[in-house]
Amino acid sequence: MTSSSIQSRSQAREEAERGMADTGDERADPAAGDETVAPVPTDTLAGNAAEQDEPTTTGDADKTAYAPLAQWAIRAGGRPQPAPGSGELQTPADPWPEPIQGLVPPLGQPPFEAAELLRLAVPEAVPPKPRRRLGAILAAVAVALLMGAAGVLVALWPEKDAGPVAAPTGAPTEKVATKPAETTAPPATPAGPKPRETPLSSNFDVDPICAGEAYWPMQPKRTGRAPHPVLVYGDQGNGDRLPFTMFKTWFLKGKAKEAVWSPQQDPAKIQMVACVDRVSAGAKLRTCTYKAPAEPGTGTMYRASYRLHVYETATGRRVLDTRLAGTVKTCPYALSVPTDKKLYMEVSEEDLVAALGKLVEG
Asked: Are 301 and 285 in contact (CB under 8 A)?
């Protein structure tokens, strides 16, 4: 305690003693002598202050924070506490703070329960916003843009057979006659042999007519009286397709026979081509060995059968189609042995003349 407070307390005691002497208080009795009033112990003051902390129901006395100090002043001989309701009571300079809104019930209402108070004190949890929402929106916008771009490309892409464009709604429309699409079919290829533009120039160039592919309109037709010159051409058993020599038929028979059967006759006078084609092979017959002037080598000869079909050179018309067996047992003439080392029996000249005789000389 400071010296100023002790001095103020002493002055208060003196004023109280003088007041008691004037009013005839027991403390002014001269028999009591000059007994001085002992200072109030600190413990007593603290106890009184503690007692004043307890709340009372005396109206305005509870609204001031200075009630303990006022009671102490009365005991010390100071001015008494103003009466309740007087205008001397003043509102403290530091009033109690306002209660938290929502935690105190309205005036005249019962206090909140503990659970309800906890609900009011703790705000409700706000559900977190999904983080992927923005990403999903951006992805959807990107897909929409891509689809729109694709639609624009499809719309702008030129179409070969695009139909009429529809007019907008409300606009006058004009009827346009649509023409069905014309399909251009490739020209049909005529079946059968085709004519050649130049005459037959060589007796070694008649393979197209044997294959049924061509004919020569400028050649003489097979009409009139016999004989009708023929060229025998085809497989001779050694793998080569050449004109047959027909040596026995025309060489010793004079010029008339030579002009009908010879492989060296004038090509421009040939009326028919007799084609010889091997169609099957049979059993092994013998071994053929070739020496000079042919290229040396050895091959195996087999039995075979042939197709003989005859065509008119001027029209490509087939006039004969038959089958002959190979009967020549001697090894066929060859300048070299075939790569597969296989040789075949030839059709004999006699069998050819027998099959063609009526067409040529009949």
From this structure: yes
pLDDT digits (tens, 9 = 90+) for 247-306: 999 988 889 999 999 999 999 999 999 999 999 999 999 999 999 888 899 999 999 999
223 vs 190, 262, 281, 296, CA distance in Å?
A: 26, 20, 37, 47
Q: How many CB atoms lie within 10 A of CB 350?
A: 12
CB atoms within 10 A of CB 258: 16
DSSP helix, strand, coil percent of the chain (3-state; round to 5): 30, 15, 50
Long-range contacts from 86-95, C-beta under 8 angstroms, 24+ separation: 89/60, 89/63, 89/64, 90/64, 91/63, 92/63, 92/64, 92/65, 92/66
Structure confidence by residue, pLDDT tens digits, 52-96: 444 444 444 444 455 565 565 556 555 556 666 665 555 555 555
